[in-house]
Amino acid sequence: MNKAELLYSGKAKSVYHTDNPDFMILEFRDDTSAFDGKKKAALARKGAVNNQFNAFVMEKLAAAGIPTHFEKQLSANESLVRKLTMLPVECVVRNRAAGSLVRRLGVEEGQTLSPPVFEFFLKNDDLGDPMINDAHILTFGWATAEQIAGMKALTLAVNDVLLKLFADGGMILVDYKLEFGMFKGELVLGDEFSPDGCRLWDSKTLEKMDKDRFRQDLGNVIEAYEEVGRRIGIEFQ
Asked: Dihedral angle at the C-alpha atoms of 28, 30, 33, 37, nearest 10 degrees?
């Protein structure tokens, strides 16, 4: 399958057409950003680390029965994925209080959330990805009731798989975001799963091992990503 013209270039990934209309190539770059792009940097090895991390997690989810767009890893920085019609919402699950939840509600960081908190956000950088609810999604036609129910069910199924995966590696899956799209009538997990899009803390020390290291200038960002990967069984190349 041949790589064709660039379809889209985001903050940290680029997407390319292929000679098969059902598939795209997802390229993970070394770029990173935070605070809606206000803070930017290029971190050596980041693209390769996140590509391998995502491939590993997507394969774990597929083995657990979660439909994903991931097909196979092509190179250090590239993966082959199915071409989805993306739904313009993000699904966020919070197992511990952190980030915007703490700022919005004034709760203590680290508080265990039982049951986990599920939130929808609109994918719109210009508006700062505002939080939305089911009524907004239905009213403005961003997804159907069936798709809303499916996104919630699949996101919580992902939570069951990943909570154990990271706990077995001595880590707490604090929160994360997922994106979904449609492929030939089926709701499918898209985008990526890497330390860029979740919060992970060491179970004993509560050390942050995710993108918060970049946001908060804690240093050793990619080294932390690699440590997370090794703990869950990734052999980085």
From this structure: -80
Sequence-distant (≥ 6) Cβ neighbours of residue 203 within 8 angstroms: 167, 170, 171, 172
- What type of residue sits at position 147? Q
Q: Supply 161's token pair.
A: 């798989």
Tokens standing for residue 217: 């200038």
Task: Give the global pTM.
Answer: 0.95
Nearest-5° Cα angle at 196, 191 to 197: 55
User: Within 13 Å and on the Cβ side, how many CA atoms surround 189?
Assistant: 28
Residues 6 or more apart from 227 whose CB is under 8 A from it?
209
pLDDT by position in tens, the chain (length 237): 799 999 999 999 999 999 999 999 999 999 999 887 789 999 999 999 999 999 999 999 999 999 999 999 999 999 999 999 999 999 999 999 999 999 999 999 999 999 999 999 999 989 999 999 999 999 999 999 999 999 999 999 999 999 999 999 999 999 999 999 999 999 999 999 999 999 999 999 999 999 999 999 999 999 999 999 999 999 998
